[in-house]
Amino acid sequence: MLKTESRYLLTKEDIETREDLPAWLKTEYETFSELVTDPTFPCFFGRTAQLKGELRYAYIEHNDWSHLPEAVESFLSLFQKPTKIRHGLFIFVEPESSEKSIEDYRSSFWDILQYLHNHDRFPWPSEAPKDPEHYLWDFHFAGEPIFTFGNAPAYKQRKTRNLGNSLILGFQPRAIFQGLEGTEKGGIMSREKVRARVETWDQLPKHPDISHFGDPDHNEWKQSFIGDDVTPIEGKCPFLHHNR
């Protein structure tokens, strides 16, 4: 059974009212909220969810990641019952004392996903590819497929990926894309609208590694933490699947 309640899975009200949370988290959340609710913010789904209080949040500090698996399980439990709410999870990482490079933040991003995988209480679904080089691979936790993406202060050109001084991981369970899949009419239209708005905000063409899940010429892991440019990501995925 998934852990259904956790004091580490936070709502908008929690962050705004609880006094036991780190000061840095409240500061970074305020920056995040201000950016995401800007009327011109490209992702209208994210903007609407933030305004309605439908997003969820978690955080980790440099010396303690231990509560993160519990928080993610609690988040995924929101989908155990049929719901039309497209919840998303944003994980805030304690800011660095000085800003790092894109490569450093990307490395931290994959370290966090690896930590979650290493501490996953549930088996990886037998039908899901385990090799990130497979075009149908995506990250799984507690048996659920999740689209993960990173945001970091080192993004200077791709401003939509810079949401404050924290490395922020976005988690979107595949369940929220029902009806908006990559090959569905609604998904194609929504994706094109958002991407056009992103290009306007960033003043940069779509990154070449951005596509849709299920594209046989696409590696999902590359789109999780794109570059601050238009250069395709090379090399192998840092994620290592552990058989248990």
Written account of the structure:
By secondary structure, the chain is an alpha+beta fold. The chain is built from seven helices and five strands; from the N terminus they run αααβαβαβββαα. Strands 1-2-5-4-3 form a five-stranded mixed sheet, sandwiched between helices. It is globular and about 45 Å long. The model has no long low-confidence stretch (mean pLDDT 90).
Number of E strands: 5
Overall mean confidence score, pLDDT: 90
Strand content: 5-15%
Strand order of the largest sheet: 1-2-5-4-3
Oligomeric status of the shown chains? single chain
What spatial form do the alpha-carbon principal axes imply? globular
Rounded Rg: 17 Å
Order of helices and strands: HHHEHEHEEEHH
Key traits:
single chain, 244 residues, alpha+beta, 5-stranded mixed sheet
